Every structure is written in structure tokens, then in C-alpha cells.
Amino acid sequence: MGRDTDVLVVGAGPTGLALGIDLARRGVPALVVERAQGLFPGSRGKGIQPRTMEVFDDLGVLDAIRAVGGTYPVGMIWQDGRRAGEHRMFDAVEPSEDAPYNEPWMVPQWRTQQILRARLEELGGVVAFRREVVALTQDEGGVRAEFASGEAVTARYAVAADGGRSTVRGLLGIGMAGETVDPHPTLVADVRISGLDRDNWHVFPPGEGDGFLAICPLAGTEDFQLVARFPEGTAPDLSLDGIRKVVAARSHLAPESVTELRWASDFRPRAALADRFRCGRVFLAGDAAHVHSPAGGQGLNTSVQDAYNLGWKLGAVLRDGADTVLLDSYEQERRPVAAEVLGLSTRVHRGETRRGGATRQLGLGYRESPLTREIRTDPGAPRAGDRAPDGTVAGVRLFDAFRGPHWTLLALGDAQAPDLGARIPVVRGPAPGAYRPGLYLVRPDGYVGWAGDTVDGLPEYLARFGRR
């Protein structure tokens, strides 16, 4: 099978765009295709968790994300047209040297995608719109995707990042088991509205005969995100008049307070996990692999981290000659994480747990991964498989050292490290607060892949999983 590109990415949501960026900066030819005529226009995935902020730092978009977003406002509960009390959505956590991003950052999804697309194009990548995949075949040499337009593309690998109703997943025959988290239809809309301040997330509890309503100012815009819950079996009216009626019935605001409708959608909160994340040369990522309740802001973040996990592995195999067994680890690492986060999202939605430390995703890791090698007999934190914390070593900030598509070796305390050349930078110096003395080989996605007190086993590990 001939090839038009190395990697075909189906879907230009946050997952596909993040993967496109990661491949582009590694010099891997990739094509991102999207069946719609443009980027997603709504705010739906508006919360960026601290771990994803670290990912965006590495991908070169953090400054742009921070410039257009803001912190979450304090919830304001209304009763009978009066302010009745405050509600904080997240437990407060102070930033620290090892975890500099301490709280979720609010950016409407449409704006996040604009920033990711701009970064992709800066690196020479493109998004081809109006490309709907209708057929997919593969053999030992590659993948062929046919579009509704009659065109076709061939690639060495393909990635389905085309959402919860993934066409590619269906073409592959991969099942997706799940459950309804909440049978009540939920309306989500981006609106312009008058009569509410932009300092609070306005919550209107259910009244007699009425359902829940929340109106949140979207940081960096003039818009509000409106969320309304409806009785089971009803169909929300997505028109401007329909939304005005909901606002008037459930709050003290007049219908004409809603001055503009910019986007609207309805959904039934659901949790589902694909049976597999890989079929031959095709991988599933993002909502194509797992669908979450929006509670806790986990879906977009887990999806971006799917891309971050897969990107360096595809690059290592396609450009650096790494063993193709590396690609098997994508499902082995990401599917358990997705299952764990799905459970968390569901518990948050049902009020069984708060939006706390777990929702920040800094504690997720890969200790049980086949890529993880912990050589020390008495390991302390961080262990191999854990996220590599930030810190300062001999005047070097670790996140600055990690930034880029390379591996990094930390030689802390009295640990002796070989000179690995320009391909793998070595940071030497006293161990910062989050580390114990020793050797830590940090993967390109910011997790400790190998840890030891001496170099025993390090060359063999790099020969198999690193650059050759």
C-alpha cells in the first residue's frame, strides 16, 4: 500500500489537534481531517486541569491558553431572586514548586481549539475540513481511508479522534460498553445575557415544577454558558425563544435578558469505555475511546493526554527506530487511566465525591506499565511510572528541561550518569524537594520511565524504547 502521509488523524477536536502538534514537532508527516466545515463552535469542554496545563506548556500553547482564560468563579446560589449563599466548585490548593498549576483554568472549548490549530499551523501542519470518512481498510503496510467526497488517503497509521459517535470506531467494529449516568436531558448553550454579574457562577436550584439551571460567565469572552436539566423523556427546545422561556421560568430574569444565542446542544450524561483502544494500525483516542459525564471536567483533559501519550510513541517508532512493541503500551497505559477517570466523573456527577485533588489528574500514572522500570530496592517518590514533578536543580527549572520532544535524564545527589550526548540532555545537581537522590529517566510525556541508583539497565532500556 502506498502512503500519502505517515499518520492520518480523524477529527479536529482537542485530541486530534494536540496529536497533530506533537507529531509535527517530531517531524512526523501527519494529516488531520475533520468532517465538519470548521472547528467546534461551543464552550462544552471549558475546564483545563493542572496536568493538562503542564501538557500545554510542553506543546507550546500555555501562554496563549493563560492569556484568554481565567479561574473558575465562585458559585452563587439564588433563591426567589435573592442571593442565598456561595458554593465553591473546587477545593482550594496552593501552588508548589513541584506542581505550579494548582487549579483548573477556564477556557471555552472553541477557543482552546483555535489556539491548538494555530500552533499546529505554526509547525507546518494543516487541518483538512469537509473530509468525512466512510470506509477504512488496512493491511500489514498501512491504512486506507475513503471519504464521502470520493477521495482517499493512505497512511502508515491512523488515529480515530472523531468523538463519542466515532465513525472510525464503528467501521472497526469495536464495541463501547457503558451506562447512563443521568437519564435527564441536559441543555448546554452559549448565550449573551444581561442582569447577571460576571464574578459568579449563578446557580438556580430546582423549584416547584422547574429543573436545575446554572449560568456561568465564560472567561475571556462576553458569553455565558447556560446549563439546564429537564425531566426524563422531554426534548429541550434549543431555539432562542426556548432558552428564554427556561431562564424566565427558573430564575428572576426576564425572557429578554437573553439577548443572543451563539450555540446550543442537548445530551444525556453517559459513561462509556471502548472495548479496545487499538485495532491493527488504527488507534482510538479521546471521546472515540471514552465518553464522560461533564462533571469534574475530565473528558477533554483525559482526551488531550491520550494524544500526548500516543504522539511520542508514534514518533519514536516512525522516526527514531524504536521497537514497535512501544505502540502496544498505548492501550496498556491509557485504557486503565480512562476507566479510572470515568468512575471519578460519574461519582462527581452523582454527588458522591467533590471536585478535589483527583480531578486535577496530577496523581495519574503508569506504575504497572510494561514501559516502567523501577530498579531501586527502596524507591521513594517519585517512582518509575509517576509524573515527573517540577523543581529546580542547579538553577535549572525541570519543566524547562523537559520541554520538547526528547527524553531527559536526571542525575540527582551523588548519582553518576553517563554522557548521553545531545539526544538526551542530562540535568545534574542536588535533589529538589519532590525527589530523592538517584537517576530518573523522564519520558517525552513527562513521566518517569526508568529509575535507579546506578546506570545498570539504562542502556538496554533506551535501546528498546528510546532513540537509537
Uncertain runs with pLDDT below 50, 5 residues or more? none
CATH fold label of the largest domain:
FAD/NAD(P)-binding domain
* Average pLDDT over all residues: 93
Q: What percentage of residues falls in helices of 4 or more residues?
A: 25-40%
The 3D shape can be described as globular
Distance between the termini: 27 Å
Reported for the largest beta sheet, the result is: 8 strands, mixed
Radius of gyration, taken over Cα atoms and rounded to an integer in Å: 23 Å
Q: Count up the domains.
A: 3
Could you name the CATH class of the largest domain? Alpha Beta
InterPro entries: FAD-bd, FAD/NAD-bd_sf, RIFMO-like
Protein name: 2-polyprenyl-6-methoxyphenol hydroxylase-like FAD-dependent oxidoreductase
Cofactor: FAD
GO molecular function: FAD binding; oxidoreductase activity, acting on paired donors, with incorporation or reduction of molecular oxygen, NAD(P)H as one donor, and incorporation of one atom of oxygen
Could you explain how this protein is built, in words?
The protein is an alpha+beta fold. The protein has three domains: 5-69 and 107-176 and 271-360, FAD/NAD(P)-binding domain, CATH 3.50.50; 70-95 and 183-268, D-Amino Acid Oxidase, Chain A, domain 2 (2-Layer Sandwich), CATH 3.30.9; 373-465, Glutaredoxin (3-Layer(aba) Sandwich). 25% of the residues lie in helices and 28% in strands. It has ten helices and 28 strands. It has helices spanning 14-25, 50-59, 62-68, 109-122, 167-172, 240-250, 299-319, 325-349, 398-402, 458-465, and strands at residues 5-10, 30-34, 47-48, 70-71, 74-79, 82-87, 105-106, 127-129, 133-139, 142-147, 152-160, 176-180, 186-193, 200-204, 213-217, 224-229, 258-267, 270-274, 278-279, 282-284, 290-291, 373-374, 392-393, 396-397, 408-412, 426-429, 438-442, 448-452. The two termini are 27 Å apart.
